[in-house]
Design brief:
alpha/beta; globular; two-stranded antiparallel sheet; 37% helix; 216 residues; 6 helices; 7 strands
């Protein structure tokens, strides 16, 4: 037990979080719970990009272990690239040896928020609240297959069709594309005739230089 706590302390620090205004600078994740029409409970693992506000994954299942979490994160990294940091609470699935070992093997900086301080993970908490209000409270899920389809479609709509106030009322997908263009265009000389990006370089709460990010 002492060895596990020492590994967790080394990997998951509670020091102030630094983040750059770019995709994959920081991901956050959390679980949301609901139930099927039969009364059986299930949970959803939500993974967010805190800068672009994209929902990177919304994974429903009746049981999601620490091994499942790292498997989903590994597949996500293969598609999207490695995050600079991952933020989560102290749930048992997220502090288990499978997660700690994965962080060590992949050189991932995993930040655990202080117990009882959910707003230290405010980006995904805000997303969870929206999912709860707009989807979970309004939908009677017949079974897991039905939940997977409905949640997948809602997350896609959130990324592609929902303007976000913190992103200048752009959708997360549109903002991510403009952010990439804006951060890539710095190599273009000012005197060049190439079109300069006019995208906002960072959403509210994120600096364009590596700096402290305000929780929430």
């Amino acid at each position: 037990m002492r060895k596990r706590r020492a590994r967790r302390k080394a990997i998951g620090t509670r020091a102030p979080i630094l983040v750059e205004a770019k995709a994959n600078a920081r991901w956050s994740l959390d679980f949301v719970h609901d139930q099927f029409a039969s009364g059986q409970r299930f949970r959803i693992l939500n993974i967010m990009d805190d800068v672009t506000r994209e929902c990177l994954a919304a994974i429903p299942d009746t049981s999601i272990s620490g091994r499942r979490v790292v498997r989903e994160l590994t597949e996500l990294i293969e598609r999207r690239g490695k995050p600079g940091m991952i933020v989560s609470d102290n749930g048992t699935e997220l502090t288990c040896n499978a997660v700690l070992g994965w962080c060590s093997d992949h050189k991932i900086n995993w930040h655990y928020i202080a117990p009882g301080k959910p707003m230290q993970n405010g980006f995904v908490e805000s997303f969870n609240g929206r999912m709860r209000d707009e989807l979970l409270n309004e939908t009677m899920f017949r079974n897991l297959a039905h939940a997977r389809i409905v949640i997948r479609d809602w997350a896609h709509d959130y990324n592609t069709n929902r303007p976000h106030s913190a992103l200048g009322y752009e959708t997360p997908e549109a903002f991510a594309k403009r952010l990439i263009s804006a951060t890539d265009c710095h190599a273009t000389p000012y005197e060049s005739s190439a079109r300069q990006s006019v995208a906002k370089l960072a959403p509210n709460g994120v600096s364009t230089r590596k700096a402290l990010v305000q929780a929430g």
